[in-house]
């Protein structure tokens, strides 16, 4: 798994997305973006799910961060809410110190200045200062969550960069990685040909660019 993580870390999410399309896997988490364009995170998901408080159950913050292993990407599903945060400065400081690879939130965060100071990779639907205390409750840790229609399990590999966030199923990770690497090589060959005198049209035709993302037959 560590080898796959390193190989995926070397690839842009654009190539991984094209590979997912070619294989026929839906893995793009629409609407999530980095707090800074230089942020990048790759690693197995550590899943967390929150829900709104109700009349019978009060709010809970959850100290799940103590259980996150180094190199994991925390994936928090707060049902896409943008009116309350589930991640702030304390969590950023602790996560960065412990070597956690990054955080993906189906919702919003706050204390952005701490994120930027620590250069801690965080991807979310935005930022907002209002606390989730007494407004949300922790309902699950280490269970599958669904973000943007994509199921994410604890074994799922998360890949995130300036273009957004992807989820790669563990069972297909080798295949996706090999396909993405091949796509990157073809695109590099096209650029090299164009730089040495070929027309872009001819280079794309020569290297089969228009079929790169076409879904392959099983």
TrEMBL record:
Homotrimer. It comes from the Bacteria. InterPro entries: RraA/RraA-like, RraA/RraA-like_sf. Transmembrane segments: none annotated. It catalyses: oxaloacetate + H(+) = pyruvate + CO2; 4-hydroxy-4-methyl-2-oxoglutarate = 2 pyruvate. It is an enzyme of class 4 (lyase). Catalyzes the aldol cleavage of 4-hydroxy-4-methyl-2-oxoglutarate (HMG) into 2 molecules of pyruvate. Also contains a secondary oxaloacetate (OAA) decarboxylase activity due to the common pyruvate enolate transition state formed following C-C bond cleavage in the retro-aldol and decarboxylation reactions. This is Putative 4-hydroxy-4-methyl-2-oxoglutarate aldolase. Its EC number is 4.1.1.112, 4.1.3.17. Its cofactor is a divalent metal cation. Belongs to the class II aldolase/RraA-like family.
């Amino acid at each position: 798994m560590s080898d796959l993580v390193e190989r995926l870390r070397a690839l842009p999410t654009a190539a991984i997305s094209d590979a997912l399309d070619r294989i026929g896997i839906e893995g793009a988490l629409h609407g999530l973006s980095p707090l800074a364009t230089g942020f990048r995170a790759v690693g197995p998901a550590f899943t967390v799910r929150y829900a709104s408080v109700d009349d019978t159950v009060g709010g809970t913050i959850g100290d799940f961060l103590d259980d996150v292993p180094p190199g994991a990407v925390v994936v928090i599903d707060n049902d896409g809410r943008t009116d309350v945060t589930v991640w702030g400065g304390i969590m950023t400081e602790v996560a960065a110190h412990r070597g956690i690879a990054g955080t993906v939130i189906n919702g919003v965060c706050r204390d952005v200045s701490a994120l930027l100071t620590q250069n801690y990779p965080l991807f979310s639907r935005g930022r907002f200062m209002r606390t989730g205390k007494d407004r949300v409750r922790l309902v699950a840790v280490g269970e599958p969550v669904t973000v943007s229609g994509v199921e994410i399990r604890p074994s799922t590999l998360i890949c995130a960069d300036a273009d957004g966030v992807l989820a790669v199923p563990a069972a297909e990770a080798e295949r996706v990685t090999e396909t993405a690497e091949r796509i990157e090589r073809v695109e590099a060959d096209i650029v090299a040909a164009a730089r040495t005198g070929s027309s872009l049209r001819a280079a794309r035709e020569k290297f089969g660019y228009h079929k790169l993302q076409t879904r392959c037959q099983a």
